[in-house]
Amino acid sequence: xxxxxxxxxxxxxxxxxxxxxxxxxxxxxxxxxxxxxxxxxxxxxxxxxxxxxxxxxxxxxxxxxxxxxxxxxxxxxxxxxxxxxxxxxxxxxxxxxxxxxxxxxxxxxxxxxxxxxxxxxxxxxxxxxxxxxxxxxxxxxxxxxxxxxxxxxxxxxxxxxxxxxxxxxxxxxxxxxxxxxxxxxxxxxxxxxxxxxxxxxxxxxxxxxxxxxxxxxxxxxxxxxxxxxxxxxxxxxxxxxxxxxxxxxxxxxxxxxxxxxxxxxxxxxxxxxxxxxxxxxxxxxxxxxxxxxxxxxxxxxxxxxxxxxxxxxxxx
Length: 316
Prior knowledge:
single chain; alpha/beta; Protocatechuate 4,5-dioxygenase, Chain B; eleven-stranded mixed β-sheet; 16 helices; 11 strands
C-alpha cells in the first residue's frame, strides 16, 4: 500500500532521530508505553537520572508494611476514619521514614490515599545537610515495578518564588524521601510528588512560606506528608520518657517548644512546628507512638521513636 507524502516524511524523521538520538527515542518510548520498570525500563530511567528507591525499602518490607494483618498486630486497625469519611479531603499526615516503622507510614498513606490526592507534598530532613537549605528534585523515583514522577509545574513555581533550589543529587541517598516512595507508589501510582528536604534547623517561617505558596494545591486536594522520626540514640525507656513530653507538646499545639527541641526528641523540629502552625492542633489525631526497641523487642539498644499523626479536614 502506497504511503502518503506526510507519512513518508514522518517515517524519515523517526529514522533520523533513532540513528542520531537513540537515548531520546528510548526515553520517549518508555514514557508513552509505560514499560515495566524491572524489565526494560531501566535504561530510560538511568538516562533521566531517576532515583532508585528500592534499596530504602525492600519488596518484602513493602509487602509487610501494607499488610492489614500486620497493622492489626501493631494495634493500627483503622476504624475512626470510617466514622469521619464524609468530612472531606485528607490534608496532612506525619509519618516515620525509618524502615523499621514502615507499617506506620503505610497505614496513614493508605488512609490518605482514600481521598485520591493528585499531588503529594513531602517535607523531610536533609540528613547530610548537603546542597541548599531547602532542596527539591525534578527526577522520577523508581519503586518496585512502578515509577513516581515529580510535579514539575508545582516545583517550578516554588523555584520561581525563590523558596527552593532544584538539585536531584541529594535524593540519591536520602532515605527520608526514598523510604516513602514505594509506599506512595503502592497506594497512589498515578499521583505526582513535590519532595522538599531541609537542612537541620531550617526556619519555621521559611517552611511556612513554602506551605503558603502551596495552599492552592492543598485546596485542590493535594496532601502534605511530613516525614519525621522522633527520639534518637536513647534506650527504649529513655525514648518513651521523651515521647511522653513530646505528646504533651503535640496535644497542646506548642509549636514554639517543639521548634527548639534537639534530636533526643525529634529529628526535624521545625518541620513538625510548621505542620502544627499550618494545620492547627484542634483537628490533629495521634494515631500511634512506638519505637524501634519495642518493634524489635530490644530494650537495651539505642532506638528511634515514632509518632504517626493525621490532620482531619477542618470541621465546618
